[in-house]
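Researcher: Structure prediction, please.
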Amino acid sequence: MNSKVALIFVFNHKYDKNIDVLENLYKNRFSNIYHLVPFYEGDKQNVIPVYESSQHFQGYLAQGYKKYFKEEYEHYFFIGDDLVLNPAINENNYKQYFHLSENASYIPEIHTLHHLTNNDTLRFLPVKSITGKKRWHWCKIKELVENYKHKAYAVENANEMPSYKEAEAILKNHGYEIQALTYRDLHGDVFPLTSATLKYAANLKSYFKKFPLAYPVVGSYSDIVIVSKSSIKKFCHYCGVFATNKLFVEFAIPTALLLASEKVVTEKEIGKRGSIYWLYTQPELEKYNEDMRPYNLSLKDLMQKFPEDKLYIHPIKLSKWKTETI
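Model: Predicted structure follows.
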């Protein structure tokens, strides 16, 4: 029986050397493999060149749609080229691992943006309030409110997506109610004894002001997404519109998925998770290096010792790992 899933690798950068490594790593587990590679100039038929900023890689998914779409595929399994799936997962059992029915899609998580406190899978930064209490803050929310325009200049996309009210109702039907944001949602809070403190002490109305979204959106870690056949066309269309509007990818993908899908499964429902690491600070690097030490920077060792309770590990930078023995 022919496989009914497409495995599609999403490259943030033009790193063609990873194509063969990924093919070798997954060829015995998935029959239908594609790669979305920025500015690709080679001749591999299953590698699709894309042209977009990695900050808006939802555009990759939209641009590649007609190349990877086939009527017989039940699901489209997108993963980052630096994310490694549990080696037990394959084209025959992925639906069991991710609790998917034919019309269900998957993303690790979905968060509304008001009073968001997640610091597990999204990249948050700590800020101190005027009371000295530490609060975790996702700076992308501020950029969303200050910079995002849903109807972008010179882009005729006004009728390409559900209206604000329609989108709001769809998200609410999925269980995600959109609310206006607060100053704390945008900035975390004011630091003591800074210009920001003085500015908002002089005008406290700004601190209590509400900031409505230009369009209803949610947030999610988006380096792994599985989209059902019934949703893929509309999902990619919405991703393309969000790319032209320059909406940050971790707002664009989960929002497009909810707007396009009958049902979306998250890791909370599955009861299993992936391992996600951020590598910006010294403590984060030390934690990552300690957890990766048992694998000796060898993909072969990683495949043999992969933690059974994890769906995936991210990141695994293939250029830094030994790959010749896989």
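Model: The chain has a mean pLDDT of 89.
Researcher: Thanks, that helps.
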